[in-house]
Amino acid sequence: MAGCGIDRISADSGTTANTTDTKTNPEHRPIHDADDSTSGDAPSPATSARPRSTTRNFSAVLPKNEAYVDGHLSKPALISIAILTFITFVGNFTQLQLSAALPTIVKEFDISVTTGQWLTSIIMLTMGVMVPLTAFLTRRFSTRQIVITSMVVFTLGSIIAWLGPTFPIVLAGRGLEAIGSGVMWPVLQITVFSIYPLARRGLAMGTVGMAMSVAPAIGPVFGGWQTDANGWRSVFLTLAVIGVIALLLATFGLRNFVQHDGSVKADLFSVCLSIIGFGSVMFGVTNSEAYGFGNVMVWLPIIVGIAGIIWFVLRQIHRARLFRIASEKVFAAKRAGASPEVIAHLKAAKVQPPLLDLSVLRNHSFTVGTITATLSFFAFSTITVIIPLYIQNDRGFSATMSGLVMLPGALGQCIAQFGGGRLLDRFGARPVTLVGSITLLVGTLMMAMIGPDTWIWWVSICQFIRQIGMGFVLMPVTTWSLNCLRSTSVSAGSAVTNTSRQLGGAIGAPILVIAMESITKLRQSALGGGAAHAVAASIFGVRMSLYISALITFAMVVLVFFGVKGDGAGSTRDLTHQALHRLHEQIEQERNHITGAWPTHID
Length: 603
Fold this sequence. Notes:
mainly alpha, 2 strands, 1% strand
């Protein structure tokens, strides 16, 4: 099928056999330490035939045939998915709980809104830097190791932010929270895709997404209430307690689902390039409000950042090419009947997969889905900063009221996430994402009509419509785009799409805030200046930033209309039937290959 690589589907059971995984596994096997053993997420016949273990060895990998049995998750798999979902929820909760407290923090530390929004932007920026590490981390460490370490870092960061006497220290603690929670969503995605068959992934991701949407539902409300009742520091105390609970759950209930290889090494230089690149761009854009774009503090960091991003991309492409060449040499030697010594020598080559395998972007459907998700995050970033500022600073409502106004929208997205997954399985990605993107556009245009005397619950209604649209866009388009990759590329694809999404949100928030404040200053000057016109000018700036958001959303509608089509844009049932139709052809092709752990190429 054009644009979509599909796992082999078992006709009698409806579950994914993952024969691709036993033959190719570039994301999980480095060149110098792979063998002909069976992949961790595709058990061998011997493994499938053995009885289930009665002992609770949490460190052992739970085979797929013991994780998904007779169309349902087994108890250990269900518990593990629930734990991962809860911990990912904590990350989303962390990101949005502070939004209602932001105006209070800005006043207490006597800083600008642009500086204060770093408390929200640093979460997305750090996640954007951490997510590319996901593919490496899942190759190098077990799920338990990743999750437990992440929760230790998260809890430490929450304690530092809770006790921090100055804004930089609070920001540093916030950064540690982001490091701890940054990899959890990709890890959850990889786990869901490694357990569920293709025909059930839409529903599974919709269910998980619904749980994720509970965080923005209660985060701002709970954070606003805490800020009004006990001060903003109580928010971080709560997060520290939640971090301890998550750590205990992971320690005593989480299982491993994918094999890992302790010999894999990290490309630390690529990590540094990503930090320098994306961090410098963010720093330059943030400084533009205070210095203007002509100042060296603005254009120099942006130029350095762009150069770092370009270098990072070129390095990933180069490392992917070297890895592909080394893999092809191993397969060529096997086909030629080379001796075990020669093959072992080729495998000993110190060639690692790229930190971020950008080759998945060659898949047109995946690229369209990734761009769509990124645009939605960029356009939607107004929710974390601009709307709470309007409600509290311009309209004079409390932080608790700010959270309550945002509550219906978050609940709407929660419902839409679940419904979007079911509709994806039934109707496909195109109709669902098209309706969702149009709904998001309409809601944004409605919200752009707010004024100084607007009924406050009109904001809530508009936000409800916007988040319904987000629910029908984000999860379905992400699931569809990952379905269009081979199972061995899901880890790399998840890293790419989540990196892009987080960076879109991280860059979108400061850009829209700077646009809002710049327009506000111009408007206030045009009205004659003075405090009397400050509120009217601020509301005008909020409206203009929402129009900018609507323009970006319109571009997303056009992209969905022209880009989400072809194989894979129909229902998942259609994909399954097409995969069954190709089953015989795939079996014949596999007979012509030497079964092993080495790919003929990196997808």
